[in-house]
Amino acid sequence: MYRYDEFDHTFMAERVAQFARQVARRMSGEMTEEQFRPLRLMNGLYLQLHAYMLRVNVPYGSLSSAQLRGLAEIARKYDRNYGHFTTRQNIQYNWIKLDEMPALLGDLAKIEMHGIQSSGNCIRNTTSDQYAGASADEIEDPRVYCEIIRQWSTLHPEFSYLPRKFKIAVTGAPKDRAAVALHDIGLRLYHNAEGKAGFEVLVGGGQGRTPVIAKTIRKWLEPEDMLSYLEAILRVYNLWGRRDNKYKARIKILVNATGIDEFRNQVDSEWDKIKDTKLQLDAQEIERIRAYFASPAYETLPDYSAELIAHGEQNTAFKEWLKSNTAAHKITGYLIVNLSLKSPKQPPGDITSEQMLATADLADHYNFGELRVNHRQNLTFTDVRQIDVYELWQKLAALDLATPNIGKVSDIIACPGLDYCALANARSIPIAERIQQRFEDIDRLHDVGELSLNISGCMNACGHHHVGNIGILGVEKKGQEYYQFTLGGSSTEDAALGDRTGPGFSTDEVVNAVDRILNTYIEQRDDIEETFLETYRRVGMAPFKEALYGAN
Amino acid sequence: MPHMVIANTLRDGRVVFLSHDGSWAAAIADGELAQNETAASRLLADSKSSANSNVVIDPQLIEVNETDHGRQPTAYREYIRAYGPSVRNPG
Amino acid sequence: MALIKDGVEAKDSFVNACHLDTLPASGDIIVSLDQWNDHRDALLARDAQLGVTLKSDQHPDSIADDLQHFALVALEFPAFTDGRAYSYARILRDQYSFAKELRAVGDVLLEQLLYMNRVGINAFDIVGDNDLEQWKVAAADYTVWYQPTNDGRTSIRDLRRG
Ligand code: HEM
Ligand code: SF4
Fold it and tell me: Which pTM value belongs to this model?
């Protein structure tokens, strides 16, 4: 993985010193809150309902075991012993003190991490496929380009006061695990007919109150042109994106208003002027960065999957876990293992310091000292020897990190909602917990099969509700929490926005409503192979509506 | 209905209530209750003094019910601010 | 009010005439884009230096053919959050090769000094003289940069190559 060199370290040290000065000026009253707020936000520090919240970037989801130990230590020293992994491959701490921030950022810098641009109207953490470098279906490793983008976007002098936030995601596999179509810019790596790698570029995706699936702006972009092309898009957006209304300020609104063809022309015309500048990447630079992402020292191992299956015959819990929580590796004898942060005992995405420390040890022992954070708020070990998998499972189970529910209904994405978030209309976590409790039964879970259920506590859609196969949106009606449902959303390569079912449900009715939706699916599906999404796409809304609201 | 002033402290972001002597109290029970509109606006004005601008952030009036179980903000959001998340800390 | 130009306090020879009904007969002035368009001949006939202000919704394309007449272009930041002029600065420097003074005016924060510097803005109108020391500190906040721009500073990528 990427390691800071002297220049990255110098930059970080300067950043920490700068923020320490800014905090001091605020605490002494030299600066007003109005002046200070954007500065703290640029360092990832929000004020939430109960305290400051710090968002720390995990660049494209890659963590070393040492970094995870550092994050655990921060949770212990500066917070309440836990952290929350988000859908954008960040970790959030909920109980931070302003006067401890300089020391905290210093500790973060030691593990080569920070919260820069994790908030604000700037280019945010670039996200990627959690299986990057390991998955059997990968064409090219997206992390190389994510790291190049990370450096280019960090304190970009021209693009730090954009009309609105800007999110970029990169994927290098046909199966989209990075939700690229829901980002301001999505980059899809693929091979052309000559076998050369390049990008399809998507623009104008996003969630929030106006969810939009991104459109293709370029079918083919040479990797060497990546930064100049990104800069051209960003410049057109910086110049022409709306600044009069923050709900209409995202690039998706500009692209829709301009029309994708005209927008493409504007970008091309800008691009022509900057293509041959220093933004041009050369093979040398790309290879220099690629070297950081060299494969770990894989051993030559036999395929051990038959033995794993045999283990499963002895142990149903292991069998279920193996089926749902692991994925195929590109190297024989290895497996990708997902750690579920969706135990019914903990809010989705939450992890304690103890779990972090133990996970770091397991990563050292079984996964070359690395791990990933993925956009469904779980963790991933990308390179586990099949021969170790059973043992690893036992250890994960002891840490409550082996709930066999990856990709299942209880693998819920949930934002912090009204329990923490200052913008929320309703709570998300207790709803998630109740649904998880209802579906604790493994047989039911696996009968329902592959399904994404996503919950947001308000229109901002941090919980990806628009693109959940089942989406739940918390709203407030006369001081009461209500929950509206959408069905049929998807964030993968067949990205789609869900359709509203109708009126919302009260807190007491939500879980039953989920139950009814799932029963309807089970009645309607052709066979057990047909997923919820496939069934919904085939039969449409009507039977679900009827199940939820009766025949009228 | 009575009102109180709620805010977050600048130093650590914690929720506080303005109390009768002008200091900021961590517990809702220790904050000052304004029983009428005049008292409420005076309380709010106090909370926005220049001295307070470097002590707390965004002081606001909230409506509070006095019940047998103590003071309860009528808006659920403020209830959660006063009493903490409705889910326990996993740490 | 003090002017910082190329990193040092400088004397400002210009009078801001954007809001004046009648233009001063002599002396260096800064006019608005409208004034330039309306009084072009009169302004060219004056025997003094001329500057023009671009508001944040006035793209430099509107003065592209006239740049040789200006000793400075002032870029207005109506609010520090309005970042359009960062792009204007780069377009002026990189695409139109404008080499004279680029001045930031309006809601310009200390924290933005370096960003502005890096896109080619070399002069700042600052409010309150006592801030000068802080401006000097802020100007030294960073010594390394990831992005290649045209401000003469070497990017980290080039430094890595030695
Ligand atoms: C608790 C503090 C948070 C605040 C104040 C916050 C605020 C916001 C706002 C205002 C938006 C709407 C942006 C727009 O459409 O222009 C948004 C979108 C989003 N947030 Fe959050 N958020 C928070 C936490 C989270 C968490 C915990 C996650 C992940 C679980 C998250 C991930 C996202 C994502 C994925 C989007 C939508 C995608 C898009 O940008 O279009 N946020 N957030
Ligand atoms: S969706 Fe709303 S409630 Fe949930 S984290 Fe985002 S802003 Fe907060």
Answer: 0.93
- Strands of the sheet with C123-126, listed across from one edge: C8-10, C2-5, C123-126, C101-106, C72-77, C50-54, C28-32, C14-16
Q: Report chain B's C-alpha Rg in angstroms.
A: 13
Q: Which ligand is nearest to the CA of A84?
A: 1
Ligand 1 site residues, Cβ closer than 6 angstroms: A 46, 48, 53, 86-88, 92, 164-165, 167, 206-208, 250, 415-416, 420-421, 423, 460-464
Query: Residue A47 is part of which domain span?
Result: 6-110
Question: Which ligand 1 atom is at minimum distance from the Cα of A211?
Answer: 41
CA–CA min distance C87, chain A (Å): 6
Q: Are residues A530 and A426 in the same domain?
A: yes
Instruction: Tell me the CATH number at A327.
Output: 3.90.480.20
In a domain, A228, yes or no: yes
- Mutation target to probe the B interface, by most B beta carbons within 10 A, among A80, A418, A507 is A418
Domain membership flag for residue A95: yes
CA pair distance C135, C137, nearest whole angstrom: 5
The predicted pLDDT at position B91 comes to 76
Identify which of C74, B16, C108 has the alpha carbon closest to the alpha carbon of residue A51. B16
Look at chain C and report how many structural domains it folds into.
1
CA of A86 to the centre of ligand 1 (A): 9
Choose one of A226, A259, A292: the last residue of a domain.
A292
What is the tally of structural domains in chain B?
1
B34 CA: distance to closest CA in chain A (Å): 22
Report the run of H or E that residue C52 belongs to, with start and end. Answer: strand C50-54
Average predicted confidence (pLDDT) for chain A: 95
Q: Do A430 and B84 touch (CB under 8 A)?
A: no
| Average pLDDT estimate for C114-118 | 94
Q: Which ligand ends up closest to the CA of A349?
A: 1
Answer whether residue C129 shows pLDDT above 70. no
CA angle A165, A170, A173 (to 5 degrees): 150
What's C153's domain CATH number?
3.20.20
In this predicted structure, what is the pLDDT of residue C150? 85
Q: Each residue of A225-258: pLDDT tens digit? A: 999 999 999 999 999 999 999 999 999 999 999 9
The answer to the question of residue B72 being in a domain is yes
pLDDT in tens, A412-454: 999 999 999 999 999 999 999 999 999 888 888 889 999 999 9
Residue-range definition of the domain harbouring residue C40:
2-161
Task: Round to whole Å and give the CA distance between A199 and A144.
Answer: 13
Contacts of A352 (CB under 8 A, 6+ apart): A75, A81, A82, A346, B90, B91
Which residue of C54, C61, C81, C134 to mutate against A (max A Cβ within 10 Å)? C81
- Give the domain range for residue B30: 3-83
Contacts of B15 in chain A (CB under 8 A): 49-50
